[in-house]
């Protein structure tokens, strides 16, 4: 089974982060510029939380608040579900499903070294299935 580290080696380990004192609008601007659905809140190398488009929709838009006046710390998720580089994709899928999250920060020695999304996991599983099918096809046609 493929591991988180293998996904990171393919996709890269770039992580975008902001501070909890940024406004939600500033966070959304970075998310839009980087074309990402969630951003990490990291302060002094410590993961403090995560802010997703879902948080914005549910905690700002639906409550008629202003993203230019609200701060990230007011709506960010602080109970962050994380994984390690050695975790396998089956475990990640289970976490994403049971915890209802779409992004998993990757921590090594309590330092964020990457982030994977549900899309990354699905793509990796599809590639593994393609390889398996190709292997089986070559086995059958021999």
Automatic annotation (TrEMBL):
Q: CDD domains this protein is in?
A: CBS_pair_bac_euk
User: Can you name one GO molecular function term for this protein?
Assistant: kinase activity
InterPro entries to which the protein is assigned, alphabetical: CBS_dom, CBS_dom_sf, CBSX3_CBS_dom, Diverse_CBS-Domain
Record-linked Pfam families = CBS (PF00571)
| Domain CBS residues, every copy | 9-67, 76-132
Q: Which domain of life is it from?
A: Bacteria
> Which residues fall in a coiled-coil region?
none
Q: What is this protein called?
A: Histidine kinase
Q: Which UniProt keywords apply?
A: CBS domain, Kinase, Transferase
């Amino acid at each position: 089974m493929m591991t988180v580290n293998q996904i990171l080696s393919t996709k890269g380990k770039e992580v975008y982060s902001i501070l909890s004192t940024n406004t939600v609008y500033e966070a959304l601007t970075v998310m839009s510029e980087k074309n990402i659905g969630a951003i990490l809140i990291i302060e002094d190398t410590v993961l403090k939380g995560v802010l997703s488009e879902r948080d914005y929709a549910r905690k700002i838009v639906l409550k008629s608040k202003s993203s230019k006046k609200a701060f990230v710390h007011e709506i960010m998720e602080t109970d962050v579900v994380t994984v390690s580089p050695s975790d396998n994709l089956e475990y990640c899928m289970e976490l994403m499903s049971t915890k209802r999250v779409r992004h998993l920060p990757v921590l090594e020695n309590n330092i964020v070294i990457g982030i994977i999304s549900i899309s990354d996991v699905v793509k990796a599983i599809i590639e593994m299935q393609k390889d398996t099918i190709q292997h089986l096809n070559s086995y059958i046609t021999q």
